Amino acid sequence: MKHPIILAMLFMMPVIALHGQANSIIGVWLTEDGDSRVEVFQKDDGRFYGRVVWLEEPLNEEGKPKVDDQNPDAAMHDVPIIGLEVLQSFTYNQSKEEWTGGTIYDPKNGRTYSAYLRLDGENTLRMRGYVYGMRFLGRSSYWTRE
Questions:
Q1: CATH number, domain at 66?
Q2: Does any domain span residue 89?
Q3: What contacts 27, CB < 8 A, 6 or more positions away?
Q4: CA Rg value for the chain
Q5: What is the pLDDT of residues 57-73, one digit of tens each?
Q6: Alpha-carbon separation of residue 3 from 8, 10, 116, 132 (angstroms)
Q7: What is the largest distance, in Å, between two alpha-carbon atoms of the chain?
Q8: What is the pLDDT of residues 78-99, one digit of tens each?
Q9: Is 129 in contact with 114 (CB distance < 8 Å)?
Q10: How many CA atoms lie less than 13 Å away from 81 in the CB half-sphere?
């Protein structure tokens, strides 16, 4: 009776390890400029997302919360930056050891880019946004775990 349990545990170990690697991105990250923090989390669909949870300067010139006024969709112009999802729909690619298939939105210019994410060590998240499906036509940014 003990042998089937041990056997089942041995088969589950790679699945548990993969799940742990995929989830290692979860947490709060300080952006490269140091002016915002983004919380990376996993939704029920198994994909990873990130939302702004802090801004160094959360208020505009009128003393009101900053909103997504650079968004090309006018309906988004009144949506507060804090709480805004800026990372969307990433999945973990075990063979590349990176999160792929998602997008990153830059509320400073209202543009959305294809992107991939990779951990450089335990506390540095490298993200590369790119255009036209070509990774070499892009820019990298490094975020620090909080």
A1: 2.40.128.520
A2: yes
A3: 39, 40, 145, 146
A4: 18
A5: 999 999 999 999 999 99
A6: 9, 11, 42, 53
A7: 70
A8: 999 999 999 999 999 999 999 9
A9: yes
A10: 25
Q: Is residue 73 part of a domain?
A: yes
Q: Provide the token pair at 23.
A: 């989830």
Structural domain includes residue 140: yes
Burial label for 44, CB within 10 Å (0-12, 13-18, 19+), is exposed
Helix (H) or strand (E) holding 22: helix 2-23
Number of structural domains, the chain?
Answer: 1
Give domain status of residue 136, yes or no. Answer: yes
Domain that holds residue 93: 25-145
CB neighbours of 6 closer than 8 A, spacing ≥ 6?
none
The Cβ-side half-sphere exposure at 110, using a 13 Å CA radius, reads: 12
